[in-house]
Amino acid sequence: MQLILGAVLLGAILSRGSTSVCVAILLGGFIAWIPAFAYSRVAFAHRHVPPGQLLLAHFKAEAVKIALTALLFGAVLMCFNGLSVAGLFGGYIASASAYWLGLLNKIEK
Fold first, then answer.
1. pLDDT score of 2
2. Higher model confidence: residue 2 or residue 39?
3. Are 13 and 22 within 8 A, CB to CB?
4. Over the chain, what is the mean pLDDT?
5. Cβ–Cβ under 8 Å, residues 65 and 41
């Protein structure tokens, strides 16, 4: 769902033809997606463990996610001069909100 929402936002901007904004939106979407993927790999690395270890795994995964998000934002902002900051954060917010909307969708069912 994160990738789909990011792609829709990217498609809307592509129709206007601004390459800098499109790249920024794409990078923002990846900044949201990569830490979420890392979270799932760390949090669910071990199955069938006691609840205390499972909770600790989620805390570690959240720490990895926050650190990775900060590092990726820093790297992108340092390496890509002239990048649309609004597009970068817009792509990130769109992809991150898709994650939360997906969670809410699961709760309602």
1. 57
2. 39
3. yes
4. 84
5. no
**Cβ neighbourhood burial of 87 (10 Å; 0-12, 13-18, 19+):** buried
DSSP code string of the chain: -HHHHHHHHHHHHHTTT-HHHHHHHHHHHHHHHHHHHHHHHHHTSS-S--HHHHHHHHHHHHHHHHHHHHHHHHHHHHH-TT--HHHHHHHHHHHHHHHHHHHHHHHH-
Alpha-carbon span 107 to 98, nearest angstrom: 14
For 71-105, how does the pLDDT look when each residue is reduced to its tens digit (9 = 90+)? 999 999 999 988 889 889 988 998 888 777 877 77
- Amino acid identity, position 3: L
Dig out the tokens for 30 from the structure: 């990846």
In 3D, which of 99, 81, 103, 82 has the Cα closest to residue 31? 99
Q: How many residues does the chain have?
A: 109
